[in-house]
Amino acid sequence: MFTKQGPTVRELAVQALSSTERGYDLLAPKFDRTPYRTPDHVLDAVTRALRPLGPFDAGLDVCCGTGAGTGVLRQVCRKRVTGVDFSAGMLAEARAAHPPGDDGPAVDWVRADARALPFAPAFDLALSLGAFGHFLPDERFGLFAEVYGSLRPGGQFVFPLGAPPPVGSRAYWSLVGFDAAMRVRNALWRPQFVMYYRTFRLADVLEDLMAAGFAVRLLPLTDLGLRPDGSPRARLVVAARE
Length: 242
Prior knowledge:
This protein is α/β, with parallel strands linked by helices.
């Protein structure tokens, strides 16, 4: 799970007892060497799924972290990409990963809370990868509304969403255990560190997207494999501002 270059147990403990923002500032230098970074095969599958949906001029990486999604946007957007995150440490790593003058469109980096995005409707495509566990369920509609307000008419908000693991499987109990531990931690310790794996259910997500004004469709990411029943292991949620 963790390489020798990744965070130590002590570093993870300090991060877990910090606020969400401070925890990611501390984790940032080693984040890409943890299992929390979106894997390359998922990035590649999302990139392939996005190409037929374009063309796109301006892209927004919502909760960009160290810039994995920014790299996807730079492959499918023609003019400019913006990465936004509330962690200064993660933005510093993202800047280093995408220096000015390298191949692809230029990148702007903005430090802001995704629950209060500072953008006019200027983007054709918004992407987010692996960040939704940091938002409580009652914050989800507001987050989606902020993204909606940052898109031009016809703009699209996309993100991959994996199928839930089978009830009773090892993965299922691992996620249940993690979320339970986080709830106990946040009940007993301040500041809170918000990270939950089982609060982003597809039915609730679709309801909140539509309430925010999006028209939504699901595209199977078949490159990521199929479940035993033949359904895809992951889908790309495509929410359009009509």
